[in-house]
Amino acid sequence: MVKRAILAVVAAFIAWSILDFVIHGLLLQPIYQATPTLWRPMNQINMPLTYLVTLGYTACFTAIYGFMVSNKSFMSGIKFGALFGLAAGISMGFGTYCYMPITQTLAWSWFFGTVFEAIVAGALVGAILKPGKEAS
Fold this sequence. Notes:
Layout: H1 2-27, H2 29-34, H3 47-68, H4 74-99, H5 104-129
């Protein structure tokens, strides 16, 4: 089970990292470029810390699913991811909108992006951690 948990963390981390690049690095770039005073310049972004934060977030996501979901399956993973994503997306998108001068478009984008990423991660974690024959 430990091997599968590690595999689940790695798979979700890779998926989250790719989706973060697509969402933030490509799709939302015009919005970020239109509000340069809100963001650090690219040469000041600490990418190793960014990946460490993503890894910690992914490990917590996987651990919560592993410890708290009794009926582990692909579908349970999707449901868990959707609920987790709603909570995190509300906080990230609209919680940030409350105190930072981001646009409503960015708040909604962060919300939907977070929900989508969590559903994908949930599907991966659910599929990997579902009960099955353990390798010897």
